[in-house]
Amino acid sequence: MLTVDRTPGKLPYRILVRLPDDWVSGVMELVQLEAKHLISRVDYAWVSRSELSQYLHETTLFMTAYNDPSFGSLQQISSAELQFYVRQFIRFKSTTDPRTWKETPFALLPVSIEGADFLAADIIAVAEFYDIPVDIFLGIGAMENNFLNAPGDLNNAIWKKRAERDDIVLQCKGHKVWILNSSIGIWQITRQSLRHAHQLFLADKRDYATLPQRLRPTKKLDMESLNPDVLTTYAGLLLRDLLDHFDGDMAMTTGAYNGTIHHPNLRYAAGVELVASYARRVIGITAGLSRMAASQSAFVREKDLAEVHSEAAAGLQ
Fold it and tell me: Which pTM value belongs to this model?
């Protein structure tokens, strides 16, 4: 059940699970949920039938709202409010990635709240700068690595005519070199794609001074000491270039981001759109519901205040 928590100082929403009436069975079910990392701690309480009815009623209202096809667009949400929801989305995706909670030598740390907040701000800034929908960034971030900073494509290598600075040469054959082309950062940009993005940046006429300092690429590309924040800018520039190439076709753009211009990965593109659609829907409707809840709370406070004034006036009489 999804309900509203009206306790001052707590989160506005909470998820409740109706457990079996048998106490032992109920606690066992909670323990199983905790073992599956679906809850962080075991907590339970008895409720009356009237309370249960209220929870079910609130859940029905939420389900009706979330199933309403007329949900808000992310462009209608202010940047400050949107940053809060994007941060939550990033945290949700990174903390539910099995690599962050499985007890293995290769376990990864989920994105911290502070890190998610910085990344959310960067995504919104870069999306506005290159005129790219925020939800597409969220779809790609989730599809690539669930916003986790882990290297990828470790065995990917390509032939080049000559080696360049920072290239990792695996083999030489005649006038050609076989180089490592692994992926970097949360956006999983390959080393060669990063070189291409940097050339796009050097030729770009946009005013990069309008971006925060940490998002501005330097004139010289140094892969060994690259600021990880600037990878978001490079990802945005690659997407913008692909969007222009495909005349605004988002499916071909996201497919080429994972594949190539000549061989876009359309299965990947479908996955990006699936996540982006989910993000648009959940964030858009949640923002609408939050505004509705805030207005209702304000109305209740005004009503209570009016009743207090009324009682005080009656007492004076």
Answer: 0.74
